[in-house]
Automatic annotation (TrEMBL):
InterPro entries: DoxX, DoxX-like_oxidoreductase. This is DoxX family protein. Belongs to the DoxX family. It comes from Pedobacter chitinilyticus. PANTHER family: INNER MEMBRANE PROTEIN YPHA-RELATED, OXIDOREDUCTASE CATD-RELATED. Coiled coil: none annotated.
């Protein structure tokens, strides 16, 4: 029996969009790149990395919505989320709110859902073709 990932794909897509698009217009991505990534050793590429991450989130959301290239998009996003845990969230502990602030639990859940999407995806591993 084929198990649909439609609800999970839509939910993750919405989360990725709402986590990315506002920062494109309110200076959040520029601040993250210049004021954080550049200061932890990514200078002078912090701004480029920050924009690449957020644009990849938007592209991944669109691919999840359209059920195209789901595996590569999900795996790339898992890598980005894991790097977020390593560079930003791990030092803050487990909890995002309540017992702490800015912890790993949210990224952990997103990674788990994306892994389930990859596992349930019935299509062979595909990359975009022209």
């Amino acid at each position: 029996m084929k198990k649909s990932t439609l609800i999970l794909r839509i939910a993750i897509g919405i989360i990725l969009l709402t986590h990315s698009i506002p920062g494109m217009f309110n200076g959040g991505i520029n601040a993250f790149g210049n004021l954080y990534l550049n200061t932890i050793g990514f200078a002078p590429f912090g701004l480029i990395i920050a924009w690449t991450v957020k644009i990849s989130h938007v592209i991944c959301a669109v691919l999840l919505f359209t059920n195209r290239c789901v595996k590569p998009a999900s795996l790339l996003t898992i890598f980005i989320l894991a790097m977020g845990i390593a560079l930003v969230h791990f030092q803050e502990g487990w909890f995002v709110v309540g017992g702490g602030r800015n912890g790993v639990e949210y990224n952990f859940l997103l990674i788990a859902v994306l892994l389930q999407i990859v596992i349930n995806d019935q299509k062979p591993f595909e990359l975009p073709t022209s």
